Amino acid sequence: MARTLVMLVHFRNRPSKLQFLSKILDFFSLCAFAVMHYLNFIKMTNIGKLLEFWLTLLIYLYVVFLDLAKAFDKVPHKRLLEKLNKHGIGGKLLSVIGNWLSNRKQRVCIKGRWSKCITVWSGVPQGSVLGPLLFLIFINDLEEDINSNILKFADDTKIFKEVRCSTDCRQLQADLDKLVLWAQKWHMVFNVDKCKVMHVGN
After folding, report:
1. How large is the average pLDDT for residues 116-145?
2. Sequence-distant (≥ 6) Cβ neighbours of residue 147 within 8 angstroms
3. Which of 6, 75, 107, 165 has the most CB atoms lying inside 10 A of its own CB?
4. Is pLDDT above 90 for 174?
5. Do residues 140 and 82 touch, judged by C-beta distance below 8 A?
6. Please, which residues bridge with residue 159 across strands?
7. Is the pLDDT of residue 30 over 80?
8. 40-97 pLDDT, tens per residue?
9. Does position 38 have pLDDT exceeding 60, yes or no?
10. Biggest CA pair distance of the chain
């Protein structure tokens, strides 16, 4: 039976709106931490699922390993907020997330010498708990209208299909073309050098 995660927050005095929103973000960060641990387990078992799928059906299976180039750094903020709004996240919470993403600057230090600060226009902050969760929401619709099977973990995607004839090949290629169109629509790019094809069967 599934267990429900409950967070109880106690305030000595009546909380301000800022305190309340801060606690809401803490709650989402806690949820994101739990989700990432679960997805780490999924990553470890994805290959096993592919092999189990093949061994059960004894089929000719083609697996295409896809990789989004600099995925966490390329997420456009406006389009991410658009997707969050479509998922029902709006109002002040959406504004807080928008403020958290915007007006970020970065610089590098080499041997004690600092570069100039530059504005960061895209990407979700790595090293944060909320950042990976926002990325998962951003790529949540990646497999829409895809007929082949898909397994996802962060910026790594595996698409696989039973291929026995030229029609199956064309269908798999059509799904790959749809993924490319998705990437173009949402300003993402697949790293072709890291994309590989694996054939499972005779």
Report:
1. 87
2. 161, 171, 174, 175
3. 75
4. yes
5. no
6. 64, 150
7. no
8. 544 445 555 655 555 555 567 788 899 888 888 889 999 999 999 998 888 998 999 9
9. no
10. 70
Tokens representing 40? 């780490």
In SS3 terms, the chain reads as CCCCCCCCCCCCCCCCHHHHHHHHHHHHHHHHHHHHHHHHHHHHHHHHHHHHHHHHHCCCEEEEEEEECCHHHHCEHHHHHHHHHHCCCCHHHHHHHHHHHCCEEECCEECCEECCCEEECECCCCCCCHHHHHHHHHCCCCCCCCCCEEEEECCEEEEEEECCCHHHHHHHHHHHHHHHHHHHHCCCCECHHHCEEEEECC
Where does residue 200 rank: exposed (0-12), middle (13-18), buried (19+ CB within 10 A)? middle
pTM higher than 0.90: no
CA atoms within 13 A on the CB side of 83: 17
Rounded CA separation 155/201 (Å): 27
56-79 in b/e burial notation, b at 16+ Cβ within 10 A? eeeebbbbbebbbeebbebbebee
Between helices 130-138 and 77-86, what is the axis angle to 10°?
80
